[in-house]
TrEMBL record:
The keyword Phosphoprotein is annotated on this UniProt entry: yes
KW Phosphoprotein (keyword) present: yes
Gene3D superfamilies, sorted: 3.40.50.2300, PPM-type phosphatase domain (3.60.40.10)
Annotated ranges, domain Response regulatory: 21-135
Protein name per the record: Response regulator
Tree of life domain: Bacteria
Alphabetical keyword list: Phosphoprotein
Signal peptide residue numbers: none
Origin species: Vibrio algicola
UniProt xrefs under Pfam families: Response_reg (PF00072)
Modified residues (4-aspartylphosphate): 70
BP term (GO), one: phosphorelay signal transduction system
Length: 371
């Protein structure tokens, strides 16, 4: 994996400058031929590679407008290619096409920020063409765009609106029809269980049956030692629980990315999420919880949105326990809920969820200097 800067290659003279170019990376020559022929009819210039290593070699001479690659390839896999391209060409959009049933592989490339993911076999070529068009258009209109998961399946503009014609509904329909695939994807997208910044360590533990729609947790370190996180009960979203969970993840990432250097307000986040849910038929109200831990002030703020929790202070002398009520669900006006702020955490503590039946969740925040 290379992190060093490199000179951007010049466009090869064999490539038509008036046509948008697509690099097609797949070890299946039949699939490549079929897709290349189809893309040519759409007036795209196509460059072919049979594996990831060959693709990187071609990138030395020509940087295309978009890369479409398979996951399972010899010599250098699609996962390795996505990782390499994400470092060398962070603004280059990518689409992964794969027949893999292992959602852990899909989650890996999503975390590297691929533009889109399509499953093989591609029965609707128009869906393929639409995904390519959407990726190229966003790349053109947002030249400083850096790939991240928030672009997956949902396109949100600055005001939080989500135009229906830009949504990739076939992804969500596929997940709705395949419960196991949807569940595996949500579980595979969970972040590392332990994370540390300076003298503070945060770790979470989820206990739940493998066959149930999961509790979905995600977090991000902000500026000045702040730790933002959320928890969503995907099972509470009924038929659209998976789509709603993915939408929340997308909007959370957008919110954090655009406001990383400012003091993000939990109600601002909730308002954005509520607007996003109202803008699509693929999402519906769901139980959630949001929080920001300020490591400098030594305090925790929680906005409930349908999930009840307790904060246990890690201080044997006081043994403080703060209950945080359930509140209104996300999507039903949770911005009206009271934000429990300034919860003490000089040494740290445990945020524990209540009333989850056969499931449990605990977030532990620990000040390592107090050991």
């Amino acid at each position: 994996m290379h992190k060093s800067s490199m000179t951007i290659p010049q466009v090869d003279s064999a490539v038509n400058r008036d046509m948008q170019s697509i690099m097609l990376v797949d070890d299946d020559p039949i699939f490549r031929t079929m897709m290349a022929t189809f893309l040519s009819t759409k007036n795209y210039q196509v460059v072919e590679a049979s594996n990831g290593l060959e693709a990187l070699q071609l990138l030395r001479d020509h940087v295309p407008d978009l890369i479409v690659c398979d996951l399972d390839m010899p010599i250098m896999s699609g996962i390795e290619l996505v990782e390499e391209v994400s470092w060398q060409f962070p603004m280059l959009p990518m689409i992964v096409v794969s027949a893999t049933e292992d959602m852990r592989d899909v989650a890996k490339v999503l975390r590297f920020g691929i533009k889109d993911f399509l499953t093989k076999p591609i029965s609707q070529l128009q869906n393929f063409a639409s995904a390519i068009h959407t990726s190229l258009e966003e790349s053109k209109t947002n030249p400083s765009f850096s790939r991240d998961f928030s672009s997956q399946w949902f396109n949100i503009n600055e005001s939080g609106d989500m135009p229906e014609e830009k949504e990739l509904y076939w992804h969500l329909n596929h997940l709705k029809e395949h419960d196991v695939t949807a569940r595996d994807l949500l579980q595979a997208l969970q972040p590392p269980r332990d994370t540390q910044q300076g003298r503070w360590r945060c770790s979470y533990h989820i206990l739940q049956p493998a066959e149930a729609m999961p509790l979905v947790f995600d977090y991000s370190w902000l500026m000045e030692g702040r730790f933002a996180f959320y928890l969503v009960d995907a099972a509470s979203g009924e038929d659209n629980g998976v789509a709603t969970s993915l939408l929340i993840r997308a909007l959370f990432n957008d919110f954090i990315r655009t406001r990383k250097q400012s003091h993000s307000d939990l109600k601002d986040l909730a308002e954005l999420l509520e607007k996003g849910i109202s803008c699509t038929d693929c999402a519906e109200p769901i139980k959630a919880l949001f929080g920001i831990a300020d490591m400098v002030d030594g305090s925790l703020s929680i906005l409930p949105a349908g999930l009840e929790s307790h904060w246990y202070v890690a201080d044997d002398a006081t043994g403080k326990n703060q209950a945080i009520e359930t509140g209104i669900e996300l999507g039903k006006g949770c911005v009206k809920n009271f934000v429990t702020s300034d919860l003490p955490m000089r040494r740290g503590g445990d945020l524990v969820l209540s009333d989850l039946g056969f499931r449990s969740f605990k977030l532990t925040i620990k000040n390592l200097t107090c050991d």
